[in-house]
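Hey all, sorry for the wall of text incoming. These are the two entities for the joint prediction.
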Amino acid sequence: MIKVTNLSKRFGSKLAVDDLSFEVGKGEVLGFLGPNGAGKSTTMRMITGFIEPSAGSISVGGIDILKDPIRAKAKIGYLPENAPLYRDMTVVGFLKFVADLRGLTGGAKSQAVDKALETCFLEPVRHQSVDTLSKGYRHRTCLAQSILHDPEILILDEPTDGLDPNQKREVRNLIKRLGETRTVIFSTHILEEVEAACTRAIVIDHGHLVADGTPTELKSTGQSGRSLRVRIAGRHGGELVRELKSVEGISAVESVEEGTDYLVGRIRPGRNVGPYALAEAVSDYCHVNGLRIQEISREEGRLDEVFEGLTS
Amino acid sequence: MLALRNIWSIYKREMKAFFLSPIAYVIVIAFVFLAMLLCFWLGNILDSGDSSLSYSFFPYALIIMSMLAPAVAMRLWSDEHRDGTIELLLTMPAEPWHAIFGKFLAACSVWILALALCFPIVMTISYLGDPDPGPIWGGFLGAFFHAAACIAITMAVSAFTRSQVTCLIIAWAICLPLTFLGFPPLIPGMKDILGETGTTLLQSISPMKYALEMGKGFIRFSDVLLFVSICTVGLLITSIAIRARRA
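and here's what came out:
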């Protein structure tokens, strides 16, 4: 649905986006991760046709946004960063204006406006002026305009920014639900959000793509995600810690519980050692030295650790 | 069809924005009041015997207009930049020129209303004398073109800045001197300083000169073309500024 090929954007001497390529299909919710200033908003602005790329191409639903911007834009619903709104309008007036520009008329227009108001929980403020709304309502008003025309593609730039925890959860659930039948890209720097709502995530830093995968895949690339939790019996716990540390492929052993005849602990892999190689190294060592593995499992990875490793 | 629909949607929004806030009312009332006041006071309409309004009313009205027309148009793009709504507007399935045109027409409509509300002066002159309607209609047409030119200039300035105040000051700096160069009461003084040729030359760059020509009852194609060109250039610069900010 969205295909970004060798996309670059230069502002003066600064390269904001550098040769970025990725694809997002239907039914995918793509989390767009990266530190502030990594080029997330710039990329989204190029996909939505707001700014022109310096190089590269963007195809939206099979249409090149640079060659046929009107048809491509008609397929996209966009929530810009900071959720801008016309402050002199009422919520319903604003949505009707957007519906006009989206080509909705008559019954279809009022139906779409009512549905968007309902989906984004805006009923209580429908006749209120945008100027008097709280930040949460403003944000949802802008979100409502993005889904008004039931777009195939949704691009949401920090959709949960400035919302309270309940609203954040509601918006996340909404994104998840919308993503079942559409293509969604949303940017965030809240990592739990990626785990909660995304089917896939990409991480960009300094305009480069540094990682691409499902949240689980990404998590497994961090040191935690490659570590093992074990219970090994046959010797004193403290002794086992010392012994295991010297095994090739193991960088560290953290003890959780040390018994006279066993050890419960975490085994960290060395550089470039995968979780399977690590498990083999541990089991080989135990086999040769007459130790018994009573429990072995892979640690749950941590996205923040992966993020830190990729972007710092 | 798409273009018309988009222009109409943006026109409606801008009209609502003008008339839901006090700005349009304040400007229209201020214009009508000041134009009438100057017409009776400095224009001396009751003693001048000017039934075409081209000496007693229009020159003063156009001066007031060149101060107030930028105040109508200053928010057109600077607000979009300041509030970030330009990002919404330009990611809708509409061309930038649809938005530019819709906004321009809305600001022009405010001035059609302002000029229409000057009808008491026409009624007064009709009651007092037996005016020829041609020059009066021509004068109003000229005044409308003059307003449109001021709006186009201001709109181009507003596309470059996010501050309404900056936009207003720059637009005044362009519109006011241009208007004053064609202001009839200043012409004898200009001739003393610059001579006949210099004055004619300077006058020829003032839109007011051409607007007042229409008030004499001659609607020349070249004069209309001049105003259309000023507006076109203003809108083109707006479009270039918007494109440049997105590049």
